[in-house]
Amino acid sequence: TAGADFGLVDAPVEGGTRSRVTRAAGSLQACVATLEAARVSFVVVPDRVNSGTCGLTAAGQLMVDRGTVARLAPEAPTMTCETALALSVWRRQSVEPAARELLGSDVVQIDHFGTYACRSVSNRPGARPSAHSRAAAIDFAGVRLRDGRRITVAADWYGTGPETAFLRRIRDDGCRVFGTVLSPDYDQPHQDHLHLEPGQAFCR
């Protein structure tokens, strides 16, 4: 498939990762083919317009990643294919190895606060539409480990232990995969999650 990047999801994060994600997501067909090559199931949904600023384009449900044991909760979220591709790279190349290295256990669940919501940025009246209004972002809340521990942005961002080091590592890696990553370092509305959005580079 023209534009597909079959090795992307299994390639370590480096300086060119974000541009590779953007290129592979240049067409929906190439994006889906890139995910399928990595054994990630993505079920395309029809484009739809919900309002003047909200709707879905080149989106689908991110289902099971058969290259990993970590599951998303809630499962099968709807998001743009580019967001799904970035998330798949980040999950395999950052979240999971960082947990093994810094926390000594495998990630079995990735908790999130959702993807699609027809709203403005931070729900502020009159603000520009959020990337969530296009399902072009996911809000990462934390992980559950095989040994039973839960690591959350809300509880573990501020500290000196390995949990904090883990969260800050995956935030920094996220900036090289997604482009826009907003953390508790950014503002009050992001104290309990990492906002992960493909595209322009803005990392806090």
Nutshell version of this structure?
The protein is of the alpha+beta class. The protein is 30% helix and 25% strand.
Overview of the structural elements:
The model has no long low-confidence stretch (mean pLDDT 96). Helix 3 runs antiparallel to helix 5 (162-177). The protein is 30% helix and 25% strand. The radius of gyration is 16 Å and the shape is globular. It starts with 16 loop residues before the first helix and ends with a strand. The chain has helices at residues 17-24, 28-37, 81-103, 153-156, 162-177; strands at residues 40-44, 48-49, 55-56, 59-65, 71-73, 78-80, 107-112, 138-145, 150-152, 179-182, 194-198, 202-203. Strands 5, 7, 8, 9, 10, 11 and 12 form a 7-stranded mixed β-sheet that branches. A 3-stranded antiparallel β-sheet has the order 1-4-6. Strands 2-3 form a two-stranded antiparallel sheet. With 204 residues, the protein is of the alpha+beta class.
Give a quick set of tags describing it.
single chain; 204 residues; alpha+beta; 7-stranded mixed β-sheet; 3-stranded antiparallel β-sheet; 5 helices; 12 strands; globular
Which word captures the global form?
A: globular
Number of H/I helices: 5
Distance between the termini: 35 Å
Let me know the largest β-sheet. Answer: 7 strands, mixed
From the alpha carbons, calculate the radius of gyration and give it in angstroms: 16 Å
Binned, the helix content reads 25-40%
Structural class: alpha+beta
Strand content: 15-25%
Number of strands: 12
Query: Strand-and-helix sequence, N→C?
Result: HHEEEEEEHEEEHHEEE
Give the overall pLDDT as a whole number: 96
**Low-pLDDT stretches:** none
